[in-house]
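Submission sheet (multi-component)
Chains listed below:
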Amino acid sequence: MDISRRELLKASALAGGAGLVSALGFDLKPAYAAAHDLKISNAREFKTVCPYCAVGCGAIAYVHGSGGINTVNSIIHVEGDPDSPINGGTLCPKGAAQMQLAMSPRLQEGPLHREAGASEWTEVTWDWAMEWFARKFKDSRDASFVERDEEGRTVNRCEGIGWVGSATVANEDAYLITKTMRAMGLVYIDHQARI
Amino acid sequence: MTNHWKDIQNADVVLVMGANPAENHPCGFKWALEARDERGAKIITVDPRYTRTSAVADHHLQIRPGSDIAVLGGMIHKILDEGLFHEEYVRLHTNASFMVVEGFGFENGLFAGFDQAQGAYDKTAWEYELGSDGFVRRDLTLQDPRCVFQLMKTHYSRYTPDVVAQIAGCSAEQFLAMADIVCSTGTADRVGTIMYAVGWTMHTVGSQIIRTAAILQLILGNIGRPGGGINALRGHANVQGATDHAIVAGILPGYLSVPSPAQTSLASHLAESIPKPLVPDTVNYWGNYPKFLISQLKAWFGDTVGPENEYGYHYLGKPAGDATWLSMWDQAHQGRLEGLVALGFNPLLAGPDVPRLLQAMANLKWKVVIDPFMLDSAEFWRAPDVDPADIQTEVLFLPATHWVERAGSFTNSGRWAQWKEQAIDPPDGVRSDTWILSELFWRVKELYEEEGGAYHEPILNLQWNYLNQREPRLEELAQEINGSDLRTGELLSSFGQIRDDGTTTSGNWLYTGSFTEEGNMMARRGTDDPSGMGFHHDWGFSWPANRRVLYNRASADGDGKPWDASRPGIRWTGDKWIGDVPDYGPTTPPDQAGAFIMTEEGVARLFTTYLVDGPFSEHYEPVESPTPNILHEDVPTNPLIHWYDGVRETLANGRDDYPYVCTVYRVVEREHFVTSNVPYLVELMPDFFVEVPYGLAEEKGIKNGEQVRVWSKRGEVQGVAVVTKRIKPLIVNGETCWTVGVPVHWGFKGITTGSMANNLTPFVGDANTSCPEFKAFLVNMEKA
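Outcome: structure written.
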């Protein structure tokens, strides 16, 4: 049988509870039940990895809400994953405060545009924003693309657009960034690893 | 990391230098404490400050910022001088016996071959001497004055304890007390590891600091062994993965090279990318380079590429020169960059030289910032002292999902790729990075289809065969990265299956095996550790090939027997290797090939031609230094530094106006800039501060808690003085040297705001990586 460390902890907690009843000779059940009525008891568990440094601590996000498409689901608690061979359930102050990052009221919603010289943002739609982005991207690419250098060699590079980031996205997105931007001919590509 | 977090438990000595893991990697650092508590390991810190790591270390040595090569070089000298090296390891697994061409040497701060006009080395002066068979000549006695071992011994002989002490600002006795412990691991039954971070990389000699550490660990026989290695402690959740997948100037996924203009055909690029074997028995694994590149191009461009169009080789842009961070901002500064996209990044605060970056950003026509939170970089047009009316840059801010609103894998410092689940859905007004990228791709492609434009064949031919083309599932991307066999349609299980004939795809060969027909290996959660060594092969996926300790062939001797039977990496049973996934042919007998399969030498390099600024390391002063270079006054700084226009004028000329050394760092309560949005963390560490040594504070009349102003020739900061005894005055070349420190976490956005540390830092980088010199520069200071 393959018992994980976490399952073992659960099992020993139960065994400990049972032992307590017999050792004391009276039934602690009512108090015991109350102690176990934790806020995470009805939450769903999701295995995640801390978003801060590169130790890669395993974490568990506890989510309230059924997961249905018309429900709002929110994270109510995040704790270290005891099964992780890296952190064994521990977290540092930052990792322990992950929930405040995940559920922050400061998270932005909706694209914003700032005109040249303007002192404020203007709210725009996603459709407007992506049309603007694609237009600027193509125009700068067209204006700065070098097919052949001064020695006549094929270089096919876009000199006028830079791309930076990110060390905070998943591998799969990181790969897609490289694939797409190299296909666009960009050469000024870098991320946090350099600095 | 050559090894991984849990492996640090196997060490006898843990040298922490250029890092402060108790503060910045606390849950990883516990493995050093485990080593101390369980096996009596010694923890050493060498740092300009007495850090939180020093507080739990067995020994602490305070040094001046920028003196690392002298300190490490001093240990190399001590080991060679006193015969403390692991002799059998050095003979077997390093290039110590290789002969170097006549005329190689080092004089007045320069290695042989320096071309003054070019400001570069002619590396033919550093080549190995070849025999008539075309392979390197060797002196197995290690006695020939032209063999690497003797050259190394001569080179580092100048780094005596007294010289080290003068440069670093400690005493010779203090240096030796530290060195005695570190140099004690040159035996088969002892192992030492090194934990370093950006305290080493962020110097104009950063690459050479790490090379010095590599030489030190190789002569002690510590590379490839459990409990050994050189471990880079990285600072972002997926900085390792983003590097592996090459959001990096100069490389393609899997550390393949971005082609140069001079490589005018695929054939010429491949010819220059395959190293020539230097000994008869090297595996020379980079000989497989063509397979990896061709399969990557097939993953990207599918059936539109093949031998007839060089597999789309010319779809790749060939940069005119360096295209790294500083060069990019220099282009912007010169008005040559029209647009910039920053995704999950706050470049303004990242620096260096924020005033210069602000000018550069203002020269952009447009800028797009993609992030879950509003960033200083998106609002640079209303940064302190900036009038928005003066900034003509158009800016778009796109709110993106964060890590638990999306699945996917993060690769940690120890090369473990771990899958994370999506826990919650993003709000309506937020889109994933994948969606934004796909939308940009499709819209640009459609514009080219409608109206034509500059060369766009690669855009039209880019493969986007995902179920939802406007937002690919991350599992699909993970499978594309892994690669598949086009003849069978099956996912590959190992990079040994990758071919160069266009019949396989692989987005990144290093991750082949991470998502196979058996499923997503990165999502594995098996906790078994049958060897007891902490390898955990059933947890996640560790590149390459699920190997947990790199170079592990070197953990065993010539017969394949572990140097230390109680801490085996791999072991030869007579017909196969057991233990960790071997860094060697699984059934190749131990004497068939060199242990270091990635090098053309087949062994590790104590001497190399791969860096631009020297085959050995050398102490050069930071570009802003309080003292002359006592080793060679005429060549005080790294002669291979690239100087951008107008930057020399932004540097202090000696210590007259800027008498104090300054360094920057992080604190445990904060992670760069994003934590300025987290109330608990802001409450724990609310204000920007300046760490001022006790004696200096007294001298300047500064009391703990008062406001101080610190300025360099580039900019200034103001914050709360934290008067501390953790930084002591040093005597450097006979003069008192004070170091002050500032944390990097503040800007003008966030729950609390504060000075940007990078107002102070210089716009100059390492000669090899161009990683900026954030860690040692000069400032002045007064009570505000």
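Remark: Chain A touches chain B through 116 residues (CB under 8 Å).
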